Amino acid sequence: MITASHVTSMRFAALSCFLVIPLAISAQESHIGDLTGEAKGGQQLYRRYCVGCHGERGDGRGENAPHVDPKPRDFTIGTFKCRSTPSGNIPLDKDLFNTIGRGLYGTAMPPWLPLTRQQRADLVAYIKSFSPRFVEEKPGTPLEIPRETPSEQDSIGRGRELYQTAMKCSQCHGKEGRGDGPSALTLTDDKGLPIPPYDFTTASKFKCGESDEDLYRVLMTGLDGSPMPSFSNSLKPEQAWDLIHYVRSLRPDFHERVKDAKGNRRPWRWFRSGRSEMTLDHSTR
């Protein structure tokens, strides 16, 4: 039998749950340089711009989610691909801030550059409120990126050996970098959904950025939530740069960015024939 006291208790419990959520939100902050983001301010931004894909609860189950591939990020588990922190760690606030501004190439996540820096900082704070990891854990020491080695013929040759043999990148990404390796069709993300390897021949942009430094970061921290591991314990810095230079050479327009020792542009076949030492023309990136 339900008594008046039971009803009062249930009402109090419901009210308590209602109050706890706003308190948790208001307590969450982000810190990006001189900016301090407030989750309370990010809540309305999230409801306007993000809820359609990521859902009211941040679980990646918004009304648009069934229609996009890859699926929206589930913020409740606190796992993110684009980070400067070691694999398995939560990201820095700056990592999330940069992702919002840059977007995720090849996905439904666009760049949100029209938002002010303060708005993006507020959004970061609100996104963090979905996962207890941001309360219970601290991010690891961010990766330090060393100076890039020269993009020369020898470097690309060493990178080819790493890609094809030592690191077995071709097993997923394919011998020609088209994302069609023998393991490609078997790969799944952390939720068991199919996830194709990146096709290096299609574009200059990558999921977490387009610079060589961005690629170095991915190699050394991995893409958490995907089959792409961290190679921080397998690659020396100079080897990572060699691999990046080779991956860059898989682009169809690579021949347009090759110069010989005298600075003259040469077609890609010159490099393949080994007729001249060449370097990449960084000005056309």
Key phrases:
285 residues, mainly alpha, 11 helices, Cytochrome Bc1 Complex, Chain D, domain 2, 2 domains
- Number of structurally distinct domains: 2
Spell the H/E element sequence. Answer: HEEHHHHHHHHHEHE
Number of strands: 4
Per the principal axes of the C-alpha atoms, what is the gross shape?
globular
Multimeric state: single chain
Number of helices: 11
| Class from secondary-structure proportions | mainly alpha
Helix content: 25-40%
How would you describe this structure to a colleague?
This protein has helices spanning 4-27, 39-49, 51-54, 93-102, 117-128, 133-136, 153-166, 170-173, 212-221, 237-249, 268-273; strands at residues 29-32, 35-38, 258-260, 278-280. With 285 residues, it is mainly alpha-helical. It folds into 2 domains: 26-136, Cytochrome c-like domain (Cytochrome Bc1 Complex, Chain D, domain 2, Orthogonal Bundle), CATH 1.10.760.10; 153-252, Cytochrome c-like domain (Cytochrome Bc1 Complex, Chain D, domain 2). A two-stranded antiparallel ribbon has the order 1-2. A hairpin with a 2-residue loop joins strand 1 and strand 2 (35-38). Helix 2 (39-49) packs across helix 5, helix 4 (93-102) crosses helix 5 and helix 9 packs across helix 10 (237-249). The chain is globular. The relative contact order is 0.11. Mean pLDDT is 85; it is low at 7-23 and 265-285.
